[in-house]
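G., the chain you wanted modeled:
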Amino acid sequence: MRLGPPRFHLGTQGWNYPAWVGPFYPRAARSVDFLSLYSRIFETVEVDSTFYAVPSAAAIEHWTRRVPETFRFALKFPRAATHDDGLAGDLSVLTLETFLERVEPLGSRLGPILIQLPAEFGPRRRSKLDAFLDRLPNSRRWAVEFRDPAWLETSALESLAARRIALTLTDSPFVPLERMLDLAAAFGDGAMKGADFAYVRWLGTRERENGKSRNGRRSGESIEHGGLPPRGGPIAKLMPRAQARRSLENRA
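Predicted structure as tokens:
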């Protein structure tokens, strides 16, 4: 029986970490080779740098040449729109247009685009959010991360699902983990009905950064930022539904 495409794409946030040389990258690895080496192990990566600025054309060309066609870049949408402009004005529209034009050369390598909203962006700004979401082309996959937990008790979840936009499931300090686990378990039903993919972020405690723990001691045995997810985390909650969907696809 031939299986369909993989249901899970697993990766990290970023690849350009010198502390990974030795524990993860070969000891002789050069920084220019980090991405191609990374893509031999993982099939996706979340790019944090695009949150701070629209990537240059040169960067897009470099990324494209360094990974296979099956690789997927999950890009953070620039903060110029979400944080500086609050999705409210011309800057947000211009940022969206510029960003989409710039990342177009990634082609099939472009994965989900993450719109990360600041904690102060609450449900009272619902009209701003809806107006911006209406501008998003459905030819791309989008995910929205709320950092005000009040959003999770509104009809915004149904609104995202109706647009085929994923709610980002996180273990961040901004939203109660148990609420996120409940939403992960409900994927495909209720408020999550209509969503055709999930975007899961394991942020952890960030006790390890750039290869060091907060007390300054090297964490040479580890390449993660904040540790592995607990058993029963978001992926575990989603697994039974993904397997059920795959089973149905294989029968078709």
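The first helix runs from residue 34 to 38.

Shout if anything looks off.
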